[in-house]
């Protein structure tokens, strides 16, 4: 395991300092807790806040800015942030319209966001939470009761962020978040393991001719370990599981998102997108929007995930709305 | 070596098909040669065209669109495209104002772009070329007479593309390209090798405690192989070589670009940016703009490069101008 770092204990703090140094117009760091705050943090809107373990960058700190998140709370690598981080971050960016917590479904995240929400509610700050659970691979997992929150989170943060930016109320923003979570589905796979810096070794082993289908974003087990197959077969296996789950149907328009796990060349992600586009065309499912790249990662893991979101006019308009963050930007 | 692919011979073609399928509003494929063309290709401007071996994505196909490139010619992985690709791509996107070729300094690329330029000139199409050679690591290399063209290419394509979009003449666009190349400097490093799909094995070996400083974007040798050091020391070694070369001086304003080689977690790239920001601050060099991410890669190689561009008001305005490509977008 090789890492570009100084002291292993400082990797998250130094990386956050770099994010703030690179994007001073977009973000700033909270003065006392580990949290990335929107630089201009307008208080006349619902504050949209997320967080979770580090190691998934650009998620979540890279999505703080105009039209997406107002704050992100990073834990140590693959470790939940603490309730006080969430509480202080929410206090720093929330106004009268309150705060929405977007929570990936991992036990620690859910518990800690709940505690932070209770603290804020006790002070009279309106707060709502939505748990994202878009991963069709497994029902329960190493860190989860129920399905895991994965790639859909990126799309939810963008769309819900746009709704909040446009002046939506807390009830409206929460309802939209639940709606998007209800019609987004994902699944991942890996060719290689990630390696947590503090552990100093790969999280798991895969033979040179093997892959893991349905893997989680922490390298936790998925559905099945099998021999490496051609991309087309891998994509069909994953896309079928996703399409059958919602189910997506002929005539549906979708946002198709091929996400890299951190160590996969972009050339391969676009090759995957090609196979996915062919599969969806066969099924009569129309790609209305697309996203391809490293957006929710697992350190240096090689692999990818596929996410499909069923679109309608509301979601398309919110997806297309201007966004200006380190990890996603267009439109102003 | 594990790759997500179907047949190894089809990897470039399938990846290009995926790029076009994902971004139909931005790009289309040339009907007869391997080339990525701007979808709306306006003919009333200088056409800005680049190309080179595949495996460096998003460079160059990911930079075709509004405000950057009008066409990109991808070769096979780490292999120069052919003169007929460049000729046909230029014919497809050029109007009366002619075409500028932005050529990374590799022997095959330089030779083939020259042949294409000769063919176009013989037909009366105005054409100019600029060779990018920003890599301070080595004077000559495995594939190069003189310095290699690396990270600076991304910045040049953005800035020169903005000038062409604004209506600059071929002479003006060429002069700007030479100006930017004159004040941009880069250097790279690697922790691991890349693996060319057709070769089926890593290009080189590095021991578990070693790194290669000054490496090229094809995994070709750099300045020195040495024991892995803390990030701060690596950054200082590379930044010093870059700063001393131009030289950049106290009071200079720069665009600071930390580029991932394809397999490096973004967390580490921001950690590198933090060390770079601290180094530049000590030297009195001001970061006016920044870019952090995987923009010119070497397949799945782990490592990073640093690029510094000396800014002035002209370059800042062109950098900030709207751009809409798969790999870089902001501002409309």
Automatic annotation (TrEMBL), chains A, B:
BP term (GO), one: glycerol catabolic process
Pathway: Polyol metabolism; glycerol degradation
Top-level class of the enzyme under EC nomenclature: transferase
Keywords assigned: Glycerol metabolism, Kinase, Transferase
Catalyses which reaction(s): dihydroxyacetone + phosphoenolpyruvate = dihydroxyacetone phosphate + pyruvate
EC number: 2.7.1.121
Top-level taxon of origin: Bacteria
GO-annotated molecular function: glycerone kinase activity; phosphoenolpyruvate-glycerone phosphotransferase activity
Any one of the GO CC terms: cytosol
Protein name: phosphoenolpyruvate--glycerone phosphotransferase
Organism from which the protein derives: Aminithiophilus ramosus
Upper lineage: Bacteria, Thermotogati, Synergistota, Synergistia, Synergistales
Gene: dhaK
